[in-house]
């Protein structure tokens, strides 16, 4: 009887159960559309990206060039892309986005389609290629490469003559996307002016996207593009409510990127479902995460008079908490100087920033502590609350389908001091949480220490140091059953 049962179980019932969707347990939650692509997930996990505004403006001490500058002015005295890569890598960046061409049209690579480039500069006798050296240095240091190519070009004669300029622009894109290895992000700026003949350029965005998708299918397109959105300001700060789930607006459909930018400046990123989805079930949504750009100095380009105006550690930390800590990616600009180096002041500040971030988040006080939850998906330990504390990004605490309010209690075992909390959703299956609270148990009563709305990839909360042994995370509202990948508690060293 028993041996026969084991044979029946082993050969038939167990495989059937596995095939049915779980190893004797419940089914994993279904994805909640829209979900990110694998490239969008990897991009978000970079958390901090460096931006380098370098070009003609570096030598003319301007922010926007006219396009009439003499290429002879471009002449860095000690250009060294390996120094950039070393500093940025040590500062924890995962990618560098370089301004291959800014609005003045001067190209940092020897483009075959214009004379306005490094090839007519004295630097390296006209044989230099900044894009090549930066691409090589990044690859060697293990940094990804992104390219900023300004659609607005104040030098190019064909600008404003739409079809001719569109061909020119696609040719430049082809050069950059064919000759420098893998490009992970293509950054399209929204600034745009009149052409020399007074006409306005009609950009052929779809043709540009086709070039990118053909040559670098894994690359993400920022800004005037479908994959990553501008957060809506240039201070590096996301909103307290920041959805990666966004309505596909008329502006996006029509490629009206100016109107689209206005939407985000007006707070579009916060408005996902609150107004749109609930009032209009037929609305279409897309995964559209926010990138938060800001410069470490007042200007985007290097100006010697700003050497003393590098943002303070406190300012940069605040930006970090308000970008990475609010479901955004931080794109921090560090403009190389006239030598062609990252200035010492900027390099020092970047390292200080990284040291504080690492020191703060290296020791998760909730890691592998015991936990209980008000609801566990089909009572299956694979979805238990301890999965939010195991440090494993592939596992998460999940509730039953239809349970959109629930709480998790961590038992730290002893009174513990902390002043930072970290929450992550398992975004591969969609962004869900709309509202949450974190509380500590004081005597018999739960006392709130942080409240928030969206979580998404990562939410960081700062509060005064508190001592507690029991901490509760309550999800009050969620688009579907919440999937909490990480709940962490930390103490700053300061
Ligand atoms: C803006 C540009 O006009 C600035 O010069 C800078 O490149 C910034 C990142 O984007 O729109």
How would you characterize the overall build of this protein?
- The chain has 494 residues and is α/β, with parallel strands linked by helices.
- The protein is 27% helix and 24% strand.
- The chain contains twelve helices and 17 strands.
- Helix 4 (81-90) runs parallel beside helix 5 and helix 6 runs parallel beside helix 7.
- The longest helix is centred in the N-terminal third of the chain and has 18 residues, at 2-19.
- It is globular and about 75 Å long.
- Residues 1-24 have low confidence and may be disordered.
- It binds beta-L-fucopyranose (FUL).
- Beta-L-fucopyranose (FUL) binds next to loops.
Number of discrete domains: 2
**Number of DSSP helices?**
12
Shape: globular
Helix/strand order: HHEHHEHEHEHEEEHHHEEHEHEEEEEEE
User: Distance between the terminal alpha carbons, to the nearest Å?
Assistant: 67 Å
Hetero groups in this structure are: beta-L-fucopyranose
Task: Outline the biggest β-sheet.
Answer: 8 strands, parallel
Please state the CA-atom Rg, rounded to the nearest Å.
25 Å
Task: Give the percentage of residues in beta strands.
Answer: 15-25%
Keywords:
disordered N terminus; 2 domains; Jelly Rolls; alpha/beta; seven-stranded antiparallel sheet; 494 residues; binds beta-L-fucopyranose; single chain
């Amino acid at each position: 009887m028993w041996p026969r049962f084991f044979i029946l179980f082993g050969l038939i019932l167990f495989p059937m159960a596995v095939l049915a969707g779980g190893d004797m347990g419940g089914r994993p939650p279904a994805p909640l559309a829209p979900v990110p692509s694998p490239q969008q997930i990897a991009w978000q996990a970079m958390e901090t990206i460096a931006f380098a505004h370098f070009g003609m403006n570096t030598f003319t001490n301007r922010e926007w060039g006219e396009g009439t500058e003499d290429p002879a002015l471009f002449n860095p005295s000690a250009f060294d892309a390996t120094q950039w890569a070393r500093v940025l890598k040590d500062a924890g960046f995962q990618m560098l986005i370089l301004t291959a061409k800014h609005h003045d049209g001067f190209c940092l690579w020897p483009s075959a389609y214009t004379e306005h480039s490094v090839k007519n500069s004295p630097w390296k006798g006209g044989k230099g290629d900044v894009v090549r050296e930066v691409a090589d240095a990044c690859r060697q240091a293990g940094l990804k490469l992104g390219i900023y190519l300004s659609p607005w070009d104040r030098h190019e004669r064909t600008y404003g003559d739409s079809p001719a300029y569109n061909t020119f622009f696609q040719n430049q894109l082809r050069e950059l996307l064919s000759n420098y290895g893998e490009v992970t992000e293509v950054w399209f700026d929204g600034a745009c002016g009149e052409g020399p003949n007074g006409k306005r350029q009609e950009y052929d965005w779809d043709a540009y996207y086709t070039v990118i998708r053909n040559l670098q299918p894994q690359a993400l397109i920022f800004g005037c593009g479908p994959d990553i959105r501008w957060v809506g300001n240039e201070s590096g700060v996301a909103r307290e409510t920041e959805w990666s789930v966004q309505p596909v607006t008329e502006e996006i459909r029509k490629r009206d990127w100016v109107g689209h930018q206005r939407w985000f400046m007006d707070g579009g990123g916060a408005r996902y479902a609150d107004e749109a989805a609930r009032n209009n079930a037929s609305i279409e949504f897309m995964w559209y995460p926010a990138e938060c750009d800001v410069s470490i100095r007042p200007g985007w380009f290097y100006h010697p008079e700003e050497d003393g105006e590098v943002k303070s550690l406190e300012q940069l930390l605040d930006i970090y908490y308000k970008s990475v800590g609010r479901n955004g990616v931080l794109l921090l600009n560090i403009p190389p100087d006239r030598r062609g180096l990252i200035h010492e002041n900027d390099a020092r500040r970047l390292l200080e920033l990284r040291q504080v971030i690492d020191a703060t988040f290296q020791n998760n006080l909730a890691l592998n502590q015991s936990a209980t939850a008000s609801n566990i998906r089909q009572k299956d330990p694979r979805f238990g609350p301890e999965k939010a504390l195991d440090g494993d990004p592939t596992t998460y605490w999940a509730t039953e389908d239809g349970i959109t309010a629930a709480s998790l209690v961590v038992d730290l075992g002893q009174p513990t001091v902390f002043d930072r909390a970290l929450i992550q959703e398992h975004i591969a299956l969609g962004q869900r949480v709309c509202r949450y609270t974190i509380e500590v148990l004081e005597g018999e009563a739960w006392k709130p220490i942080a409240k928030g709305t969206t979580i998404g990839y990562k939410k960081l909360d700062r509060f005064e140091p508190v001592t507690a042994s029991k901490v509760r995370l309550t999800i009050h509202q969620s688009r579907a059953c919440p999937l909490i990948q990480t709940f962490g508690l930390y103490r700053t060293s300061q």
